[in-house]
Amino acid sequence: QAAISLGLETAIFEQVADTPASRLTHHQIVGRWTDESAIHAFGALCDLITLENEFVDADVLRQFEAMHIPVYPTANTLDKIQDKLVQKMTMMHNHIPVPIFAPLDTMQTARDFGTKHGYPFLLKARRNSYDGYGNATIRTEGDIVPQWERLSHGGRALMAEAFVPFTHELAVMVVRGRNGQMVAYPVVQTIQKNHVCHVVRAPADLSSKVIAQARYVAIEAVKAIEGVGVFGVELFLLPDGAVLFNEIAP
Description:
This protein has helices at about 1-5, 35-45, 60-65, 75-80, 85-95, 105-115, 145-150, 210-225; strands spanning about 10-15, 25-30, 50, 70, 100-105, 120-125, 135-140, 160, 170-175, 180-185, 190-195, 195-200, 230-235, 245-250. With about 250 residues, it is α+β, with helices and mostly antiparallel strands. It folds into 3 domains: about 1-80, Rossmann fold; about 100-160, 2-Layer Sandwich (Dna Ligase, domain 1); about 165-250, ATP-grasp fold, B domain (D-amino Acid Aminotransferase, Chain A, domain 1, 2-Layer Sandwich), CATH 3.30.470. The strands form 4 sheets. Strands 9, 10, 11, 12, 13 and 14 form a 6-stranded antiparallel β-sheet that branches. A 4-stranded antiparallel β-sheet has the order 5-8-6-7, with helices on both faces. The radius of gyration is 20 Å and the shape is globular.
């Protein structure tokens, strides 16, 4: 809608024909990401490609990039955020504060994580998880087996993350241009229920020091993934005023 209001001609690539965007767009290609003819047909329509979310195969984006079509966020950026473990490692390597986390190979490694870091902790699917879908709070060792079986269905890889005793959950929308220019929107507070956002309070009623720290962490997170476009960055505010990175998505 925003693009159309600016007078831009739009095209969408969807797996099914009847979608909300299909009623507004000028062009629509229907097919699967594995459909080479659909990929080339879509590419032929586009001067630039962007994404609605991160659930697009990065290798498909590389095909568009090989066709010399600008794609934002890039396949390289998507590689750094699609896998939640890689996402956390990327932030850690860029000196952005994150909760304690670890990859998990077996249920025993989950038990070992609980023994070492305490309960509760979070069990997370590394890919294709959002808004509580793909997450579980492990309150006791007895929760591990049923939640592992639920989240690892289909062979999904899992990770563990230590519980963060936060006072507030925060979020910042950050925009980064191709020239590196960045703008951070006002920091908001999010109220979650069962890992799903129910209320957003904007702007967050916090001190200027905390707001500045949240904006700093959010901006550095987008830099870390070399992001171009608009990104939502989720954060934790701790009792001592420190801000931890939680997750990022386009």
